[in-house]
Specification:
about 325 residues, alpha/beta, 6-stranded mixed β-sheet, 3-stranded antiparallel β-sheet, 6 helices
């Protein structure tokens, strides 16, 4: 059975006769529950309990208030604050876990990414080979800061990973252990602002052999200032080096394929394209320009990779120019 809840749609509906009404719709939630509100024999006691629970939820949710950083229906994020914002890079080369090899080449990624983010006016800090408790300390410190004068925040993690987990120096952890600190009810000064995560890590042990494309015939087809509520998980973007279940490749000299491509696009087009367009071309570079070279291990040789993006952004994001007086560092 599916539990149902009453949710409000805060838009005035016109009935065509000059009258309006605030719409209250009975929206169902896709979750398994013990009983439905329409179950026979439940009676008033269950209804009263449900009403009390709903009231408690409403009280809890409605206590969170944050400053509106941009007009309600603005097409683009406000990137005209005094500062661009913080960028934290967690670079993992060595691990306490015996089964994890050193990530040779990651320091190239880290340094080049630091420089690329600095060119985009971020205040960048690099944290090397952190244990999980130290990662959480840095994250908690960043989340507790006042970001009122910042456009956004960016966090990059360069490490080993597998099946939904990322490795710190000592243990594995899930990414939501990190990003939940920046949800709007915990970090209200970042509410309505972009929160960007760039993850260079394997997400499994599957290989992508690719497919050869041969040249052939193709076809082409030619009231906004009113206060409003947003979901606490809105305005996040997660850019992963590979899709779930697959390897992520790294060159021991030049760095990882994904980071090389991301850094190139940030340097060349960071202030030209919006972030989703830019990440599309990151995917293009990784997909087209790279292929594994491991002739001594045929099963690993000539393999491919494709990054993926999960976006909860609600507006277009462009890294516009900052006045010289507000540039980081």
């Amino acid at each position: 059975m599916t539990d149902e809840c009453i949710t409000r749609t805060f838009s005035a509906l016109s009935y065509g006769n000059g009258t309006t009404s605030n719409n209250i719709n009975a929206d169902s939630i896709d979750a398994q529950g013990e009983a439905s509100s329409s179950s026979a024999g439940v009676g008033g006691a269950a209804s009263a309990t449900a009403s009390a629970a709903a009231a408690n939820v409403a009280t809890t949710v409605n206590k969170y208030v944050a400053r509106m950083p941009v007009d309600r229906y603005a097409r683009e994020y406000n990137m005209n604050h005094k500062h661009r914002g913080l960028a934290l890079i967690f670079n993992h080369e060595y691990f306490d876990i015996p089964s994890l090899k050193a990530r040779t080449g990651t320091n190239v990624d880290s340094e080049e990414l630091r420089k690329a983010l600095k060119r985009l006016d971020f205040e960048v800090s690099v944290h090397k080979d952190c244990k999980l408790r130290d990662i959480l300390k840095h994250i908690e410190k960043a989340a507790s800061m006042d970001h009122s004068d910042n456009d956004c925040i960016a966090i990059a993690i360069l490490s080993h990973g597998e099946h939904g987990y990322i490795y710190a120096k000592d243990v594995q952890y899930k990414l939501d252990n990190i990003w939940h600190y920046f949800t709007s009810h915990i970090c209200p000064t970042l509410a309505g602002k972009p929160k960007l995560f760039f993850i260079q890590a394997c997400q499994g042990d599957r290989l992508d052999p690719g497919v050869m494309l041969e040249k052939g015939t193709t076809e082409t087809d030619g009231e906004s200032s009113t206060s409003y509520k947003i979901p606490i998980h809105a305005d996040f973007l997660f850019s992963y080096s590979t899709i779930p279940g697959y390897y992520s490749w790294r060159n021991t000299t030049n760095g990882s394929w994904y980071m090389q491509s991301l850094i190139h696009e940030l340097n060349e087009n960071g202030k030209k394209y919006n972030i989703l367009t830019l990440l599309t071309f990151v995917s293009q570079r990784v997909a087209v320009d790279f292929e594994s070279n491991v002739p001594s291990t045929p099963i690993m040789d000539r393999q491919k990779q494709i990054p993926c993006v999960t976006s909860m952004l609600t507006r277009i994001l462009r890294f516009t120019d900052k006045p010289l007086s507000s540039k980081a560092g």
